[in-house]
């Protein structure tokens, strides 16, 4: 059992936003498979179909996606949250907007059902949204602060790695009152079909997830741990308990898992059991390994 | 996997609204599995394989219209085959409606090759929309139903299967109201032997994005389906609604 931003999690593995989170039933399935908490698909003000396909492809070193924030809008997503809540694990609503007032509108529309709000300040392929906002510390501060003032559930800020110095963005979120930062979202990337010269993704470019971005995520979490006072949730390329332990040693209090569900959703239970086993062998309590690398 | 390049070597007009496209590559597949067909610069859509090197398409929207524009020599990108296809269970009863005959024609041929008995109930709106009648007829008996009575039984294909359905294993694909009507006619034991191929909005095809999760079984149509047993569909969204690209529920009438 760990506590993060006041929420009790039976283990430190969390379903990352955008993965198996389009429907309540799907979130319930992941909750039942052993995840400590689940984060929804990012939800906005109104229904959005996202980018044309191909919107996700597997490449040699991970997955490339440009789904483009498809979602039914917060009003229609409420019934999915009602279903997801039956899973008896905290359900975090990932939300996006084009400015502070849109973020607040969506947060207010979901905060009576969700256990927490995760601000999508980091989607790399949605014009006007996500990282378009998340690369600007003053906007991050303003949005975080506005949502924090509007709701009385924990507010998580999910950061983009596509900046020169992620700690500046992390500090802005902390100043805005974020309860935790989540790092990282996908790394901007593209692939090209050599038969035709066409970019493969319908949106031409997108974000890279999976094993390839793990070392990038570890470094971002390491830097954020050194710079911030609030906790960090590490995400990016985690598929084994060893990956999770590394991320926690870099400074993460908990981890999110996304692309690795491709190998089956038992991955949450496997990682959680592995972390537990590792800590027993090494004589640690789970929270104690957070940030160990900074002391070495 | 990244899309593989496929060149169209033949285009066959099957019916006034349905065309087959033959590729220059051969895929190992289980009938009912699909490939993601990328019309470069337009869209990528899931299409059942109607043979080891062929898809059979009905023009319904932007992506299928773009496929209809393609001619011999044009190329597309292909990922797959993906998903869970049909188990071929003897004795084989095929219930096909409209373009739903596409994945079932190779199933009928495979079943015949295994020495199984094959009976096909083939339905369409009109006689000229009956798809693959010759392929089904080459491997077993075919019973026809048309909505307008222009060929065979005048009515729904689901009004045909009274004949010996109890002892047969249903393999069905077609409009969802048709398949739902069929499922509703079955008792518990028959549902366990009946398989249905679902049409859902598929994005990743990898079981990651969750766009095609079925309520309430939580399975992804793209990897856990598109073929499901009737026993898995009872009490589900099947026959009631599907979801659009934005996840909004769309009623199935």
How are the secondary structure elements laid out?
The complex is a heterodimer of chains A (296) and B (253).
Chain A: E1 2-4, E2 7-9, E3 13-15, H1 24-32, E4 37-39, E5 56-59, E6 62-65, H2 74-84, E7 91-95, H3 100-110, E8 116-120, H4 131-134, H5 137-150, E9 155-159, H6 166-175, E10 180-183, E11 187-189, E12 206-209, H7 214-227, E13 232-235, H8 241-250, E14 254-257, H9 267-282
Chain B: E1 4-15, E2 18-23, E3 34-39, E4 43-51, E5 54-58, H1 62-68, E6 75-82, E7 92-97, H2 104-113, E8 118-124, H3 133-137, E9 141-146, E10 153-154, E11 169-173, H4 176-184, H5 188-193, E12 195-197, E13 227-229, H6 230-233, E14 241-243, E15 249-251
Key structural traits:
heterodimer; A: 296 residues; alpha/beta; TIM Barrel; 14 strands; globular; B: 253 residues; Elongation Factor Tu (Ef-tu), domain 3; Rossmann fold; 7-stranded mixed sheet; 6-stranded antiparallel β-barrel; 15 strands; 16% helix; 33% strand
**Helical amount of chain B:** 10-25%
The third-level CATH topology of chain A is: TIM Barrel
Distance between the termini of chain B: 36 Å
Characterize the main sheet of chain B: 7 strands, mixed
- Overall SS class of chain B: alpha/beta
In the sheet with the most strands of chain B, the strands line up as 10-9-8-7-11-12-13
Radius of gyration of chain A: 18 Å
Strand/helix succession of chain B:
EEEEEHEEHEHEEEHHEEHEE
Task: Specify the CATH class of the largest domain in chain B.
Answer: Alpha Beta
Summarize the amount of helix of chain A as a percent range: 25-40%
Number of helices of chain A: 9
CATH architecture of chain A: Alpha-Beta Barrel
Mean pLDDT of chain A: 94
């Amino acid at each position: 059992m760990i506590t993060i931003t006041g929420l009790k999690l039976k283990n430190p593995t969390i379903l990352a936003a955008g993965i198996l989170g389009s429907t309540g039933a799907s979130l319930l399935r992941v909750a039942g498979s052993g995840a400590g908490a689940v984060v929804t698909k990012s939800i906005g003000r109104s229904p959005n179909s996202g980018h044309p396909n191909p919107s996700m492809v597997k490449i040699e070193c991970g997955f490339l996606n440009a789904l483009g924030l498809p979602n039914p809008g917060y009003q229609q997503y409420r019934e999915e949250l009602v279903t997801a809540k039956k899973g008896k694990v905290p359900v975090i609503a990932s939300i996006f907007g084009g400015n502070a007032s849109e973020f607040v509108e969506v947060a207010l529309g979901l905060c009576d059902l969700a256990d927490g709000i995760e601000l999508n300040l980091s989607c790399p392929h949605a014009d006007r949204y996500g990282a378009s906002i998340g690369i600007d510390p003053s906007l991050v501060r303003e949005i975080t602060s506005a949502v924090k003032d509007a709701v009385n559930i924990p507010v998580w800020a999910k950061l983009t790695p596509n900046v020169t110095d992620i700690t500046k963005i992390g500090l802005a979120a902390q100043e805005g009152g974020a309860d935790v930062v989540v790092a990282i979202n996908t790394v901007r990337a593209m692939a090209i079909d050599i038969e035709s010269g066409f970019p493969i993704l319908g949106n031409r470019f997108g974000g890279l997830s999976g094993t390839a971005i793990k070392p990038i995520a570890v470094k971002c979490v390491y830097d954020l741990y050194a710079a911030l006072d609030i906790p960090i949730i590490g995400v990016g390329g985690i598929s084994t308990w060893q990956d999770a332990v590394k991320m926690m040693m870099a400074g993460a209090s908990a981890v999110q898992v996304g692309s690795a569900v491709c190998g089956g959703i038992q991955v949450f239970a496997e990682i959680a059991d592995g972390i537990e086993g590792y800590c027993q062998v090494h004589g640690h309590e789970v929270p104690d390994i957070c940030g160990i690398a900074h002391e070495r | 996997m990244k899309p593989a390049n496929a060149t169209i070597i033949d285009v066959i007009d099957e019916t006034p609204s349905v065309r087959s496209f033959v590729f220059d590559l051969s895929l190992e597949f289980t009938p009912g599995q699909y490939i993601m067909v990328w019309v470069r610069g337009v869209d990528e859509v899931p299409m059942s394989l109607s043979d080891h090197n062929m898809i059979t398409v009905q023009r319904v929207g932007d992506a299928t219209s773009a496929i209809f524009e393609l001619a011999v020599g044009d190329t597309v990108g292909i990922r797959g085959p993906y998903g869970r296809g049909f188990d071929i269970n003897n004795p084989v009863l095929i219930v096909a409606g409209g373009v739903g005959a596409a994945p079932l024609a190779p199933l009928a041929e495979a079943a015949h090759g295994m020495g199984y008995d094959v009976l096909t109930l083939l339905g369409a709106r009109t006689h000229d929309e009956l798809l693959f009648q010759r392929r089904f007829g080459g491997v077993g008996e075919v019973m026809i139903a048309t909505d307008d009575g222009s060929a065979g039984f005048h009515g729904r294909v689901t009004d045909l299967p009274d004949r010996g359905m109890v002892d047969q294993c249903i393999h069905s694909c077609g409009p969802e109201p048709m398949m739902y009507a069929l499922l509703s006619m079955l008792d518990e034991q028959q549902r366990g032997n009946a398989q249905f191929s679902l049409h859902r909005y598929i994005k990743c095809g990898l079981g990651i994005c969750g766009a095609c999760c079925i309520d309430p079984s939580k399975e992804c149509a793209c990897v856990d389906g598109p073929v499901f047993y009737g026993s898995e569909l009872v009490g589900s969204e099947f026959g009631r609604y599907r979801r659009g690209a934005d996840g909004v529920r769309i009623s199935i009438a």
